[in-house]
Amino acid sequence: MKKTLLDSDLVSMRPLGTGDVSFIQRLAAAKEIANNTYVPHPYPPGAAEEFVAKAREQWRSEEAFVFAIVEKASGQFAGCMGIHPASAHNRAEVGYWIGLPYWGRGLATAALRLIIQFGFDKLKLNRIAAGHFPHNPASGRVMQKAKMRYEGRLRGALYHHDEYKDELRYAILRSDYKPHQSQ
Predict the structure, then answer these.
(1) Mean pLDDT of 20-38
(2) Topology of domain 6-176, CATH
(3) Vertex 116, ends 61 and 69: CA angle to 5°?
(4) Distance CA 150, CA 21 (A)
């Protein structure tokens, strides 16, 4: 698939590149990122290089599309968001993290809206889903603002930091999607 640039008033999104490694290494090292994702803490040396290499390979094979989220106002790398299609079912899972200095600026919502548009328009998906830990309600608000619908709580569904945790699930269907509905 051609390298894609997604763009809104707040963010631009592009495939990860080797120039992103130092930003990922620095931003992903925050304990708050690990508390809300599967990013390890402490973030090991070399992990960012491995992450970028894997993301680039997955992009080439069209197994997943992981984007750098760049804040337009500053031009700075702010985080990552990926969409992982399951072509047999015409659906995908979205995952993301935003660096701590960029929290509360609307960047995740803007990026998720772009990923949803990419999923329906470019990947021709029928369903796009995402989830979050109950202790991270801000992530749920991001999904709601992107017009994803709450589908329920999966009790003890995720193993995180040596314990089973619930997951709150959201999704949007092609039939729910209206281009520019949440822009």
Answers:
(1) 95
(2) Aminopeptidase (3.40.630)
(3) 75
(4) 34
Are the C-beta atoms of 78 and 102 separated by less than 8 Å? yes
Q: What single letter denotes the amino acid at residue 124?
A: K
pTM of the model: 0.94
Which tens digit of pLDDT belongs to each residue from 52-78?
999 999 999 999 999 999 999 999 999
Q: How far is CA 136 from CA 22, 75, 119, in A?
A: 26, 27, 24
Q: What pLDDT is attached to residue 183?
A: 47
Cα dist. 73→78, 81, 111 in Å? 11, 19, 14
Q: What does the angle CA 165 – CA 173 – CA 85 come to, to the nearest 5 degrees?
A: 70
